Amino acid sequence: MGDEERYIGVAERRARLALRHRLAGAARAASPEEVAGSLVALHGSDPATVYLAVGARLADPAGTVPETGRALYEDRTLVRMHGMRHTVFVFPTELTAVVHASTGLTVAARERAALLKAMAKAGAPDATWLKEVEESALAALARRGQATAAELAGDEPRLREQFVYAAGKSYQGVHTVSTRLLKVLGVEGKVVRGRPLGSWTSSQFRWAVSPAHPELNAAEAQASLLGRWLAACGPATEADLKWWTGWKVTDVRRALAAIGARLVSLDEGVGYVVDGDVGPVAGPAEPWAALLPALDPTAMGWQQRDWYLAPALRPALFDYSGNVGPTVWWNGRVVGAWAQRADGEIVWRLLDTEGVGREAEAAIAVEAERVRGWVGAARVTPRFRTPVEKELAA
């Protein structure tokens, strides 16, 4: 091991996580913007996850719903858009250009080509026709401010056109132009999700024209995004970085070199931190507990998770696609699961009791009451359900 490759063990990694992810009591944030800025990105595939992830990290979670809604839909300081791994996230608005250039452009080219290919196979109109529809739909959206796909189709009837996808295959289906086109425009950074049609738990969204942002150099944007994430989540391995970004390994390595990332030694092997972050980090003064939602960015932050989640817990806590369910944390590791029942009660179960005594159970109970207090009358069912969550909710 070289002199510069300091060993960072599990205890210190958990300490960094507690402070930088705003999970320890003294590290909690004052606003949704602070939470999103600290984590870089909040998972947005399940709309409720955004609010639950924010609420778990606010010093005063009472205003979680109105304040997060304000940031997303009034001040637009947070934006819901496609990002890494072709997944929907909520980002600080100042990161939209970085995410688009570093990640979105490559995915967007692939998505548009796939749509045109599928339409051609179905004998649907060509790229020129699609471009006309696109321009008309964007103009209608700009006039309206926000709109559903159905509302846009009222302005541009060609959005209602349908074509058969994968004809003759077992997965054959009928696609509507609006559904596929709006998805492509989202990945291309031309539209973003606006206000939901229902409450904060609704997965039905209006669309809005994307905020204007500069076009950045892709390599520079990748360096910027990776540096932000590594400052929040480092140390991390190359495998972690490749998984989180969804980039090619050559892109990851180029970005690491561009930011001057420093090597450290981890139990998994070689890891990286940003320059200036090699020194030791002291943990929080007090022990801490947290109830994090399904798809929480901390629970899903790394590909290699053994340092905070015992492998034996995975079958209960993850669905078949690798999506994590609601988790209970104690001092930097996952120790159980939680769920909300139909009557609103927040219930939890310990799955790993090593080192978890009465103090931990009392702290977890306090967190459960915190969640129930601000969630109020809302009922939250994760979009991707896991075995233990289903059992607890029942």
Structural features:
single chain, 394 residues, alpha+beta, 2 domains, four-stranded antiparallel β-sheet, three-stranded antiparallel β-sheet, AlkZ-like
What's the quick description here?
The chain is α+β, with helices and mostly antiparallel strands and 394 residues long.
Characterization of this structure:
One of its GO terms (molecular function) is DNA binding. Keywords: DNA-binding. This is Winged helix DNA-binding domain-containing protein. InterPro entries: AlkZ-like. The protein has 14 helices and 14 strands. With 394 residues, the protein is α+β, with helices and mostly antiparallel strands. The strands form 5 sheets. Strands 11-12-13-14 form a 4-stranded antiparallel beta sheet. The longest helix is centred in the N-terminal third of the chain and has 26 residues, at 96-121. The chain folds into 2 domains: 1-62 and 216-394, no CATH class; 94-209, no CATH class.
What is the element layout, followed by pairings?
Blueprint: H1 10-20, H2 32-39, E1 42-43, H3 47-55, H4 64-74, E2 78-82, E3 88-92, H5 96-121, H6 127-144, E4 146-147, H7 149-155, E5 162-165, E6 173-176, H8 177-187, E7 191-196, E8 205-209, H9 218-233, H10 238-245, H11 249-258, E9 262-266, E10 269-273, E11 289-292, H12 314-317, E12 327-330, E13 333-340, E14 346-350, H13 358-375, H14 387-393
Antiparallel strand pairs: 1-3, 2-3, 4-8, 5-6, 7-8, 9-10, 11-12, 12-13, 13-14
Helix pairs in contact: 5-8, 5-9, 9-11
GO molecular function, one term: DNA binding
Keywords: DNA-binding
Pfam families: AlkZ-like
